[in-house]
Amino acid sequence: MKILDRIRSWWPFGTVPETGAEELRELARSGRVQIVDVRTRMEFRRSRIPGARHLAITRFTRTGIQSLDLDAARPVVAVCLTAHRSVPAVRILRRQGYDARQLRAGMRAWWHAGLPCETGGP
User: Which of 39, 50, 69, 105 has its CA 20 to 30 A from that of 117?
Assistant: First the structure.
């Protein structure tokens, strides 16, 4: 991959596949999706989608992603606060062969919809 293409993949702008908050809730309930929260540890501890795994975007390397032990056969939804940090996460996951998308409008959309959250943890 060219260096310019690698740099562009980290830009927090552009179009990536998305899913809405209500749809994500249903997918998560049925176990048909994996959720990766790419916000900071503090943000993750403060409020997160139940069952979400955490890997801050600053640690989004091949090794970091492998540590999540994701199932390559199930879709992955990346989540951040406003759907900016999740853009590069989706690009990286897709490059590694995952069916990845982001939560449209991020955690703000989840909270706005009044959907359940967890707090505390690691």
Answer: 69
